[in-house]
């Protein structure tokens, strides 16, 4: 049984890390400095916000859903805490951050209730709520830029502690906590059971509705945390920060070997997918290609990852059968 679980674990991550290693090797041929430790750490910092967002997305995916509102929640969170800072200074920033996290949790709560209580498809639900949030935000801020972010936000996005980017430290802490919840905590086991079979989980006595709703709340909170990291990394805030991150987090989760049907998923895979997406961006820049090529490479990588994962699973299954 342990061997079988180990094989399954390897299968889930074979594709993403094999392609990740391949791109790094190819990049090193063009520019050896691309794989220098400092540059790799810089890319990991760059990937931190997407990694956090993907971990939040992972909880929803394991529960059998999907969250396309995370981009809008992220952008609204930036608007909220920047409004507090611009109008009330440092004290306003603290209150703004608290308000942003409350908003993220509330938005996730609404998503979860709509999906569970009103039986609306997660894809449509979160797409609609994301559009509503974006509309409200655009009316609120108009076309004005929110300006440069305060020092506290830059501390999390750009500064270092013991020569390690704070953004990376936050990502690692989030990954550890998420891993413990999914693998050791009773909530993680309930979420996996719900994603595997909602009906069976209900008959098993699990409060399946609450379990799913809470996964959306986690996703909303992770979107707010990602907003702090990405705005701090860039150093300023405007209405377009985080554009496209809903689909990027979804693609990163799938590239990482996580199953959209629910019932299984991996934090390591989510981070690997986010890192691969980030390295693709830097690889395109290294080659001097237009930004539009990022989408082409991402699509090819997604197909290749699924193919490699499927192939390795088939080979491993044949090996297991052969040993019996």
Choose one word for the global shape: globular
Let me know the average pLDDT.
Answer: 88
Order of SSEs? HHHHEHEEHHHHEHHH
State the distance separating the first and last CA atoms.
Answer: 12 Å
Structural class: mainly alpha
Q: Main β-sheet: number of strands, strand sense, barrel status?
A: 2 strands, antiparallel
The name CATH uses for the topology is ABC transporter involved in vitamin B12 uptake, BtuC
DSSP summary, beta strand count: 4
Write the CATH architecture name.
Answer: Orthogonal Bundle
Tally of individual domains: 1
Note the beta-strand portion.
Answer: under 5%
Separate helix tally: 12
- Under the CATH scheme, which class? Mainly Alpha
Poorly predicted runs are 1-10
List keywords for this structure.
two-stranded antiparallel sheet, two-stranded antiparallel ribbon, ABC transporter involved in vitamin B12 uptake, BtuC, 79% helix, 4 strands, 324 residues, mainly alpha, disordered N terminus, 2% strand, single chain
């Amino acid at each position: 049984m342990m061997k079988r679980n180990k094989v399954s674990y390897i299968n889930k991550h074979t594709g993403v890390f094999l392609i990740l290693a391949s791109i790094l090797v190819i990049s090193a041929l063009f520019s050896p400095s691309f794989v220098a430790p400092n540059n790799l750490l810089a890319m990991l910092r760059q990937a931190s916000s997407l990694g956090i967002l993907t971990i939040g997305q992972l909880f929803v995916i394991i529960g059998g859903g999907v969250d396309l509102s995370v981009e809008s929640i992220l952008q609204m969170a930036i608007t909220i805490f920047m409004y507090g800072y611009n109008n009330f200074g440092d004290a306003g920033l603290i209150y703004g951050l608290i308000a942003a996290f409350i908003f993220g949790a509330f938005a996730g709560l609404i998503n979860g209730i709509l999906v569970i209580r009103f039986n609306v498809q997660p894809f449509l639900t979160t797409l609609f709520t994301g559009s509503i949030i974006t509309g409200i935000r655009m009316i609120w801020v108009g076309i004005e830029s929110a300006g440069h972010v305060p020092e506290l936000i830059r501390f999390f996005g750009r500064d270092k502690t013991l020569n390690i980017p704070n953004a990376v430290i936050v990502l690692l802490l989030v990954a550890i906590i998420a891993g413990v919840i999914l693998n050791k905590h009773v909530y993680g086991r309930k979420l996996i059971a719900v994603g595997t079979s909602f009906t069976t989980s209900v008959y098993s006595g699990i409060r399946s509705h609450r379990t799913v709703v809470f996964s959306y709340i986690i996703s909303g909170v992770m979107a707010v945390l990602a907003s702090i990291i990405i705005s701090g990394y860039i150093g300023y805030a405007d209405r377009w920060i985080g554009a496209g991150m809903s689909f990027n987090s979804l693609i990163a989760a799938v590239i990482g070997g996580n199953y959209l049907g629910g019932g299984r998923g991996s934090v390591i895979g989510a981070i690997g997918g986010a890192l691969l997406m980030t390295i693709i961006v830097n690889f395109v820049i290294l080659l001097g290609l237009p930004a539009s090529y990022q989408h082409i490479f991402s699509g090819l990588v997604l197909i290749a990852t699924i193919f490699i994962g499927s192939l390795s699973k088939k080979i491993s299954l044949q090996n297991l059968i052969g040993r019996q």
